[in-house]
Amino acid sequence: MKSIIMPHLARIISSDALLNFKRAVSELKRFSSGQPHVLDVFLHINDPYSYLLLQVLPDLEKRYQVTLRLRAILRTNDDMFPEQEMLSDYAFKDARILAQLYELSFPSEPPLKDINKTILYTNQLIIAESSSNVLRNFNAIFDNYWHSRDTHFNYDNTSDDTVHNNLARNETRLKKLGHYMAGMIHYAGEWYWGIDRLEHLERRANKLGLSTLAKPSIYYNRTHVNACNTFPLATTNATVHPSPLTLFFSIRSPYSHLGLERAVRLAKYYDIALIVKPVLPMVMRGLAVPDAKKMYIFHDTKREANKYGINYGFVADPLGAGVERCYALFDYAESEGKGVEYLLAYARAVNAQGIRSETDKGLKKIVTSCGLDWNTAKSLLAGDSWRLWAEQNLKDMYNLGLWGVPSFQHKNTAVWGQDRIFVIENQIIKDMS
Fold this sequence. Notes:
Blueprint: H1 2-13, H2 16-33, E1 38-43, H3 48-63, E2 67-72, H4 84-102, H5 115-128, H6 134-146, H7 160-176, E3 184-187, E4 190-193, H8 198-207, E5 245-249, H9 254-270, E6 274-278, H10 291-308, H11 321-328, H12 330-335, H13 339-352, H14 360-369, H15 374-379, H16 386-399, E7 407-410, E8 413-416, H17 421-432
Parallel strand pairs: 1-2, 5-6
Antiparallel strand pairs: 1-3, 3-4, 5-7, 7-8
């Protein structure tokens, strides 16, 4: 019964109608209480995305009628971040890409890891929260930390107990509001991560009439605004044979669904081959995905899908049997030259059409929709040879310094997340020039 109800419940929860209703209620409460439009900003001193976000907050404050409340945090839930060492190394490199894209300050090398230094600078941030120019002081402290300067903020008469209590207050608030990560903005029930999600906040603020500009604009959309907007050189130069695009993909990952849709568009636009390497979902590899993380990903995928014109929300989770049946038929689909088409049909079915792939009825719809033979497919469902290549695909991904899906590779360029497809596109253009 649960498997029947959940897709319909997911469609309701992710609907634009419900979102607009929640926003209207939030705005009514705010207006009735006479409160300003408050952005709660949660920052961690050694989080590179927090550093970049902090640098653009003066611009947001200038362009919108909002009140910023900066909140430093220190402790995070380790269960939310598998492969923390790999994540830390990758995040620094990834943040450098964003810093270059938006012309922000960022060091060439990460600060040395030192827990005592982290605590010291976090304490400085906590004290700065009550200073006369919070934003300026936060930026100064972050600059000092990230560029290894040892100028310290004046402690004044603030006691250690006060610092400790205020830090605990911030971390409690982050958890109470339903999140687990730094570099986050919370506004009226919704979360916006780093620079990557600021455009969603900009659109919301513009719709509320909060822009101070005569012509409200969207500024933080550089990662995708020019996607597939460069003339495909392959159509004019027959001698160019660009390297293929490889996608590491999980049929259960909502972001993989977006990544596959966008990768198909990119490959078609530049006339290059797309190779998809499926891997097992994290949960089926023994890695935990806590509820708070699942809900954030669900809602974030919905708004990202809307941005790209991709259907999402009528979700029939394929975890378990649905994943295994999907992968059991992938070799068959590949042998028919329909591997990508099959995965695309499967991803749309379980993410946007509410089709329960663990049932024969649902799976038959998926198989036949991409021109495969159901009787042949049904005879192959018991096979498990796919586990060998799924494990090898995972190893290949780890060898690139990546651990999560979707991940993309083109020649020597490898990135994690559908947000970074622009990096791959830039490499493709360079390769074809």
